[in-house]
Amino acid sequence: MKISVDDLVCFDVHAASRAMDAAYRRVLAELGLTYPQYLVMMVLWEREPVTVKELGVRLRLDSGTLSPLLKRLEAASLVRRERSADDERSVLVRLTSKGSQLEERACDVPAQIFGAAGLAPAEVLDLQRTLRRVIAFLDESAR
Amino acid sequence: MKISVDDLVCFDVHAASRAMDAAYRRVLAELGLTYPQYLVMMVLWEREPVTVKELGVRLRLDSGTLSPLLKRLEAASLVRRERSADDERSVLVRLTSKGSQLEERACDVPAQIFGAAGLAPAEVLDLQRTLRRVIAFLDESAR
DNA sequence: GGCAACTCAATTGTGTGCAATTTAGTTGGT
DNA sequence: ACCAACTAAATTGCACACAATTGAGTTGCC
Prior knowledge:
Chain A is built from 7 helices and 3 strands, in the order H-H-E-H-H-E-E-H-H-H. Chain A is mainly alpha-helical.
């Protein structure tokens, strides 16, 4: 029997990823953020300042993605960038006061998405564990 | 306790999706296909001709994504497009002989990816079931 | 001290994805 | 038969995402 698109888990992962993107888009629109921008802001709300390098490791994104994204966040006055004094190669990303204030308005976003996903907490943990195994294994395969 | 990026399943789904993209990219590079292009080809290998609309339903992509993608496949001589005679609004996508021949070279791609993902068959089915529930539920939430 | 190897960010080029609009073709109600 | 409402693709504009390159800065080794 021929393998069809529907047999590929990869397809479901891809489709799920885009469906969640869409869910976030609806919720984040009123904050003026995209989903990847929201992820960057979450890292900053947790710890600050952060270098572009650290953002990349944390979010698994490279400078080709982060540089223009940060430029947009800076244009929206949510973020500031400055060269590190310790190491002039690094760029430190900091929140502006407007960026800090956004945290309060964003705090119920995860709950909204969780509600829209329809999984029990145990299933979420299970899913998360499986996906992390896949990610780690694929990373390993890539060497 | 503040919610961090690492707590969001959404993040893992997103990251897993990109990690699989990367795995496919490595395998598909020698076929000259991207992952979404490969998905379109799979649908065509299974059934032909197919309208752009049907491709969109099957792969959950809209014409804004498919039109340029098909144009690239056509430029690579893998695919032909022609207006349907039944309904002049529709466009039928067909394989060229070069497109058909590619199937043979692509047939072991799923196995290669499966091998790189490191999940047992039962886990794959479980993951697939969970993701489909999430997709259906998110679709429902979006109305 | 000097230079090669390395690192960090930014840039360039290509390919998705999606919202919104446009163009062409079809259908249903009167 | 006509016109309004609908549908299918394509196009436009924007925002990721990644490979490859570039430029500036740092480090290690002699």
